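Annotators were shown the component list below and the corresponding predicted structure, then asked to write short factual statements about the assembly.
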Amino acid sequence: MFRTCDITGFKVDLKAEKFIRLNAVMAVVSLLMAIVAAILLVFTRYQPVHLLDAEWYYRLTTFHGLNALIYWIVFFEIAGLYFGSTVVLNQKFSSPIMGWIAFVLMVAGLVLSDVMILMGKADVMLTSYVPLKADPIYYLGIILFAVGALIGVGLFFANIVNAKRDRNVGETLPLFTYGLVAAAIIAVITLATGAIIYIPTFLWSLGIIDAVDPAVYKLIWWGLGHSSQQINVSAMVSIWYLTTFLAIGGTSVNERVSRFAFFLYILFICLASAHHLLTDPATSSAWKVWNTSYAMYLAVLASMIHAFAVPSSIESAQRRWGFNKGMFEWLAKAPWSNPAFTSCVLACIGFGFIGGTTGVIFGMEQTNIIVHNTIAIPGHFKGTVVIGTTLTFMGITYYLIPLIFRRKIVAYRLAQIQPWLFFFGIAILSVSMIALGQLGVPRRHWDSTFSGGPFTYTFNPSVDFFWTLMMLGGSLAFIAALIWVLQVVISVFFGPKVNGPEDMQLPISPLAPAAKEHKGFEAPGTLILTFLFLATFAVLFFINWKWLAATWWVK
Amino acid sequence: MSLIAPQEGWFQKKVSKDERMWIVISFFVCVFLFVWMVMWHVVGRQNPSNTTYKTNPIEFAQLHDAYVKKNMLGMDNGIPVVKPEPGSDVILMAQMWRWSPVLILKKDEWYNLHISSKDLLHGFSLQPSNMNFQVYPDYDYVLKFKPTQLGEAKILCNEYCGIGHHTMIGKILVIDSDEDLAKYGYDKLSTVRPGDSETNVTEDISGWTEEQLIKGGETVFNLKGCNACHKTDGTALIGPALNKLYGSKVKVNENGKIKEVTVDDDYITTSINEPQKQIVVGFENTAMAQMNLTPNEIKQITAYIKSLK
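Structure shown to annotators:
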């Protein structure tokens, strides 16, 4: 059963639409659970309040990690994969029965593992490093969820194969779906890696296997843990291209380059497990250097290519719309009233300047010594997965509500400021965590006054400033995320129905006019911005290596 | 054209001048970063070690106990203090929830630290220098350190290791010469010396006086790290306090049933050998680790607990 969208003209399979809705709803539920835990954690680590006791602090750290990093993101990605493989291609959903099985498995997995955590039977952190042991049902929950997600990814591929058969795809896929294919391929590799480590761990928790080697566990677990973040990166970048297209009719200035960059992700991104083993025993420096650099930074190169390709697609389209004055009129006159567009641009900036720079520097073999397991590490991934992926997903939801849920966005004015609030909240949170980590503050640590220990340690007094900043940033981000959740829930369930193009609050732009022949630079403003990025990176690079050189000698 | 098929001829389209410039620069940045990491192994002074030995928690704990007994100068807050010779092999054991021993090192001398864990993963986080390494059970990580800053350094744990994680903090003192020891109160360390009693498995201790047993018990108590959880001053953070315990009645939880037992030799032996059997009410969530003590050691510990008023 298809309906033809009166706004975009796409043929929408109603079955596909249902699964997109279901998965998106579960994503929002997961995010809500994650942020409630997050605000409690922030006010526990903020020592003047020190809200939770030690037990609940570690319990909710586990809970937050799992719901934020896995459930929110994967549910949203499954919704995105279904969208990209059916609606965009005018294609039917290949197997509704399998769609239900996938969804039920994923929900069952979420319920089992979350209940186990809240019952206090899995205080093991997201990473659950053996020999730390959780209840078998916790591992079972994660395995069920992963199997469900894998089926979802399989359905995505099936939809695309069918679209090819039904001639809904011509010579090649649209760029958005192409990026999702990259994400899906990485997802298969990642989830398979997860199975390799969670299944023996599950058997070990049941007493069937004697022991799981702790170093092998950590190596393979991060094959899941870090590589899965690259699913997010691919999905996020795909959505950036999508948003540019929807908001201003922009397209990649050179699709071959953009697609090549996605291809590089598939080839090299799965080496990232090494990022977490740089200061560990058992593996050699040769192995560490090769793997942590994704084979000489070829996956970083891919991100750098996107870092130019995404903003240049905006600049190029804007210039063709006539915003051609000077270097930055295209940026000043961009559609900042469109919350999806704002989210996309802010996510791009945050991901590059905070997440990307620290990711590369912290992921170098030697500089990792000064940040490993400090709070700078979660600071870094607040800069990638929260300001990047989460904000991007939040942004594109503003299009999903009218197009897929067919509802108007309630209190639209609030939606226009929400991306800014969230961006600044997380940026402050993230930067202050990075600063704290560089001063030695550990992550996942209940009491930085070490009460009850044989000795004590007083951090550099400037930590007080950064703790306060972190608390403020965290609170702001929490409020912004809560606004988003409430707005989405109220709009989807109680919002006025969308009856046609006239009810669209977010504009959908026609394709930008073709360029007049011109020589020289396609996007000079973008080039300046990317150089600014490079300069920031160089400064941070220098500070970190200088700091490292001042520590004890070690070999 | 992210939602529709790309324009005709997209695959042949020339890359624009600025994009090409950016890709070439990016590529060279990537190569530079890679070469930098490799070169730091040649010219840099801070490189993670490549030396690891396979071990196991029991073997490493024995190694630690023997090393500490041989070299201990005294105790600092219940943790043995050792002053290793420059250039020597040093044993540093992580366990729930302490780093043992405390080390006194000389500035600008090399030491081979063997670091491993007795139970879970731990994180070696040296402050204020801020150097962080991962510690595993089953793997002996050999890090060659040369301290370059004088004064007290602390070792935090930055890998989650259970409810007492935040209490896990160790100490390394870096000095220029032995005269500096007085400055840090290390000229007169507390005097429980390992030579005073032996806790050897094979040794016959049946002839020991009560006083010898108590002293031996105190050594075992500190060496095995009991004091990480059990205080002797009445405070109960992670495990029950051990003073005024012997002879008293305590409520325990046995398979979900609450009952009252008297603390005697049998109870202490059972608590050490099977820590999960009878758990004192209120401490159900902070499970005690299996300590693997010999009967001789348990006898001495019992005498020590009896003596704590």
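Statements collected:
1. Chain B is about 25% helix and 25% strand.
2. Residues 102 and 148 of chain B are 18 Å apart (CA to CA).
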